[in-house]
Batch of 3 targets.
Target 1
Amino acid sequence: MSAADLPHMSLDEFRKHGHDLIDWIADYLGTIESRPVDHQVQPGDVRAMIPDRAPAAAEPMSEILGDLDRVVMPGMTHWQHPGWFGYFPASSSPAAILGELASAGLAGQGMLWSTSPAITEVESAVLDWLVELMGLPPSWRVDTGPGGGVLQMSASDSTHTALVVARIQATNAGLDASKLVAYGSAQAHSSIEKGARTAGYNHIRLIDVDDTFAMSAPALRAAVEADIAAELHPIWVCSAIGTTGTTAVDPVAEVGALAQEFGLWHHIDAAYAGTAMILPEMRHFQAGVEFADSYTFNPHKWMLTNFDCSVFWVADRAKLIGALSILPPYLRNTASASGEVIDYRDWHVPLGRRFRALKLWFVLRSYGADNLRSYIRSHLDWAQELTAQLDKDPRFEIVAPTTFALVCFRHAAGEEATKALVAKLAEEPSVYVAPSVVNDTTFIRVSIGSTWTERRHVQALWDLIDSAC
Ligand code: PLP
């Protein structure tokens, strides 16, 4: 049987199912508020609705789409719900969904410029836009500077890439691979430790934090000096702008100066909070960014662009390409040989790459920078309002400064009362709030930033907290 004999749906049928699916998504988003935020299944429930074997005969698409409601929906946790206050947001938007759809429709491979120039050039243009929108060093623009950005699947990938490049540079310079050391704070995201481990670092130091949960620069210096004295090779350090636990901000400028003094690669992890840098009044948090070697942030967290979409910028793309470029004969082409084009396959570990930039391009254009700024400012304002309500109420204690749109608090009566409040909030179908632990103390994280959240939803959450205590 040739492909022509396969029972493809006709393009007319495709058009019809496409309309139905967009309607289904619009209905979902339009009614999402009436659903419980959390999934409604026990382990194995979804699997039990799926036959043990793949179907031997073709099934009609109407039946397949119908199973979105029957099989998938009960097992979905609704991250796009306006009562989503868990973890960090995984925001999306109609513009992003259309971009994603267009990307799937084109189904191109952007591993080389020549395999679809639009995939490469839209991506580099959009990431150059973001350099300016976020107040990053102009030299990070790929069109005019030595730096440049590339989209990756996740911040974990971006961080891992930075670790790999630093390691390759060090070993190329003759350093003993078994003696390389990477540093992050004790509050750094687990992707720092995981990235370092999988990139082959034998020594990973998680540096003490101060009482705002930011990395202590003196403790970092002491650790670097102790490692040098022990004849190890410190080569990589990460500053977080917005840690996962409490959105603490490490002293970027001090870490940058120290990295320059000792010759370390300085990576900035702004996975969540990077989006706030579109606001000029928030950029003091990244003061010193001009001395960083790399920077990652996730539009798929707070910038209305659905997963996966993580930006990775480097100050000097030659270092990245030098470490990662491998050119097998089957990828040789005249455009690459001319040196005039970007081949993103050299900017990360995978070869194949999809048209991720399309959804980000759609988002930035369909909202416009002014609206995006207002949107982020609203989240910051609502977080401050909730913080003020909690702060003036003697039943509660604020656990960490509300720097962005994450509010961290606990019950003033202690651990048991906080856990009881967590349990009561977990019973509420209209909200999703996740606890965390710092210094053996349980606290509640309220992360504001879901696309459809309005001030009234944050106020409703406050009412639930108030009545639960
Ligand atoms: N870094 C920080 C500060 C984060 O908060 C997160 C996720 O929440 C990550 C890295 C990992 O992001 P990703 O899931 O894109 O790997």
Target 2
Amino acid sequence: MSPSRAPLRLGSIAPDFKAQTTKGEIQFHDFIGNSWVILFSHPADFTPVCTTELGEVARLQDKFTERNVKVIGLSANGLESHERWIDDINEVNNVSLNFPIIADDSREISTLYDMLDYQDLTNLDAKGIPFTVRSVFIIDPKKTIRLTLSYPASTGRNFDEILRVVDSLQIGDKNRITTPANWKNGDDVIVHPSVSNEEAATLFPGFRTVKPYLRLTTQPGKKTETA
Ligand code: BEZ
């Protein structure tokens, strides 16, 4: 079985939904408001990899907040299960998890977001129903999906990488630049191919031409160390 509506792609508007969460009921588009949002699912509560992942997201909470990013988790478990599991996450990871987790026992939202893997028979719960996979959606304040990721149940995600993508997207939205392989906030960036050399001379004084199609410049707005 596969979802009957058009698949969500980069550039799609994130579908709206109403949900029960560990922080109360939300209407997703109202929750997004003027923030960026990371909506991420995990296979199930009380599972080992997921316990480390949600602990890591809780640990990175300040880094998300300083980028105007709200995080929200989801799995096909009920609120009472989420609440009990959060106690374990906090204890095991020595954190205080403060972001909402959606209770999607009906799998309505995970179906809407295509978070259920129908192919992987190792990814079934005790009733033979597929778990939600490790999906990530980065959604911008216009409610546009800017990144999608699906990871196998066996592999915990690297949330520093999610933050890195947020940095790249936010800097790229404000400046006509792109970011190279393994770029980190503060590294040099690439002048967007749509920028002519004449425009680049004004926008990015001192830019360097490696090849006519690969021009590098200092990251706009980069904070420099003061003595
Ligand atoms: C885990 O989080 O460890 C996990 C969850 C579902 C299947 C396999 C691993």
Target 3
Amino acid sequence: MFFITTAIDYTNGAPHIGHAYEKVLADVIARYRRLRGEEVYFLTGVDQHGQKVQQTAEKEGIHPATFAKKKTKLFLNLWKKLGVHYDGWAETTDDRHKACVQAILSDLKERGELYKKGYKGHYSVRQEQFLTDRDRNEAGEFGPEWGEVVEIEEENWYFRLSAHAEWLKNYVSSNPDFVIPGFRRNELLGALANPADLDLCISRPKERLRWGIEFPFDPDFVTYVWFDALINYISFAGYLAADNAGLPDFTSIWDAGRPVHVIGKDILVPAHGVYWPSMLHAIGFPDKRLPQILVHGWWNMKGEKMSKSLGNVVDPDELADKFGVDALRYYLVRDIVTGKDADFDLDRLVMLYNQELANELGNLCNRALNMTARYSGGIVATGAATNADDHELRASLKAVTAEYRVAMDAYDIAEGLKAINRHVTVCNAYAERNKPWELAKDAALKPRLDSVLAHLVESLAHCAVLISPVLPDPAARIAAQLRMDSLLDLKFDDLQWGLVPDGHETGKPKPVFPKIVTEEA
Ligand code: MSP
């Protein structure tokens, strides 16, 4: 079992392109692992508690629950539109999640992991966290990244995170694959270098924040939003759940492989790299039950961070309507290297779709099926003798399939797509060179014509399967036009030469990737 999760998105605003990227990336990985023959459980969802939701709801004059529900709908609708297929949906206001968070709090208290103390100091409303002098900038001030900073004095509950710091340092140092890619791990080790003052304030007094999960043993307090949110990865996987809760069986999800959490680079330190492993350790998870963290980079706008205040946020819903889901899904994983940042560029979205899908793969589909229909009555004949050119094409497919696998296993979706595209280019050049339209003029050349057409159709079938994790709908359209209904039920290891049987009748081509025509064109 491969258990994959994403970060759960804040419901204080609408989904943006960064959210869409992360969900599509996880969806592609989940689909690819299924193609590899693995059983997969994909969990995603929304983070509905916290001060930001409370504040924004207050501004709108509605209850935070109503507000969070309204925003949650936007996420649900978008994932449906973008073909993000999850198995589990996490909403932190779900009673089953609340019960799990409360049980964990009680358990940690029993274990002596929690204590209550008074505190006076600075607090960032935007980041919902207490600040120390280490958070001041060179000028000795709290910079604009903290938003409104207020002075507060209050009692709170603390988690003895510092008691786990030594263990965590050792764990991170001796488990190089805890965080991928590797350079992010160095960031984490850097943050762990001086673990002063690590204890984590995990409560908020109700007079300041009502919108959260109540402390089971101290009802004047609610749970700090990050402590609540991180637990979604286990609560919705069935941890401590009743048999009839409608959640999966925890051990069959969590222990039958290594869970992978897909998150953005901004929430590795401290949330996923420091808090979460320490929390799991404190709850009693042994090292071998800790998840792996896959950290992706950010989509920026012309090198700048996307933010509401800069007015440069891209709305994925609008983009999907304007350019189509296929173009958007393709672009989101094609023009970024997993782990690194990239610039979101609409011209490149259109260019990559038009060039690599409409002109290349779309063209191969159209040609292979059109010429088979026109010159061979739609019948694929695989028995003809092959020549060196055919062997080269087969070798290309073999090499590309192996390269695709290496890239996809390493979560490098862009390289996986480039590998497919290399073979598509080889196929189109092969068609140009072998000119089936000329071969068709001479009956004596029929065996050669058959072989060329069969090689193109066979290649198309393989490419449809390989591209299916990224573009499931176009892959299904190609399978339908090939009249190979069960093509997409194949597993990766089934991808051997000979998927299209001798005498198979293909269907009529219809454009799979209609070209995007922009206003300037
Ligand atoms: N609610 C927390 C996560 C809790 S997980 C237990 C949160 N939410 S968020 O809505 O701010 O971000 C959700 C995810 O979207 C994060 O992984 C974040 O890194 C990612 N992205 C937000 N903006 C992004 C880009 N511009 N580009 C790529 N991903 C980005 O953090």
